[in-house]
Amino acid sequence: MEPQLNHREARALFFALADEELPEPQAKAVRTHLDGCDECRAGWDRYAKTVQRVRKVERETAPPMMASLVMNRVKRERRFGLRKLHLAHVYHRFPVEILIPLLLAAAVAAFLVMSAS
């Protein structure tokens, strides 16, 4: 039996589906969800149209230095798995009202630990 996806899971996979990067079982699960969910289907249609438009834009050649900077950034992001981090963010999104105080508390704690040493 193929896995059932909820709205959030299906939408999180739009990027990989558009780039044809999903393994077939996952791609089939997303398509099955889209067949039964008008809301996600409308979202997918808008997303797919946007991707098609972007792909039709004439490509320009970047200056060598800029191309080198971008490629180094892409390699670094791949190395640290930011795509997985992005998917984790989609699944475990924290409200800003919680996240900001947590980050501030962590920064203060780190400062106190460093100043005590």
Question: Could you characterize what this model shows?
Answer:
The longest helix is centred in the last third of the chain and has 21 residues. The chain folds into two domains: 60 residues, no CATH class; 49 residues, no CATH class. It is built from seven helices and no strands. It has 117 residues and is mainly alpha-helical.
Write a brief caption for the model:
With 117 residues, this protein is mostly helical. The protein has helices spanning 7-12, 14-18, 24-36, 38-56, 64-79, 82-91, 96-116.
Chain-wise SSE layout:
Blueprint: H1 7-12, H2 14-18, H3 24-36, H4 38-56, H5 64-79, H6 82-91, H7 96-116
Structural class: mainly alpha
Strand content: under 5%
Order of helices and strands: HHHHHHH
Helix content: over 70%
Poorly predicted parts: none
Radius of gyration: 20 Å
Q: Figure out the total of helices.
A: 7
* Number of structurally distinct domains: 2
Give the total of beta strands.
Answer: 0
From the spread of the alpha carbons, the general shape counts as flat
End-to-end gap: 56 Å
- Report the biggest beta sheet as strand number plus sense, adding barrel if it closes: none
Question: What average pLDDT do the residues reach?
Answer: 80
